[in-house]
Amino acid sequence: MPPTDRLETDCSSCAALCCVMLAFDKGKDFAFDKNPGEPCRNLSGHSCTIHDSLTPKGFPGCVAYDCLGAGNRVVQEVFGGQSWQQEPRLIPVMMEAFSAMREVHKRIDYLRAAEMLPLTPRDEQKRRNFLDHLEQHRWSGPELNEFEFGLALEIDIFFHEIGK
Ligand code: SF4
Question: Which of 9, 29, 35, 40 to mutate to test the pocket of ligand 1 (most atoms within 8 A of CB)?
Answer without folding.
Answer: 40
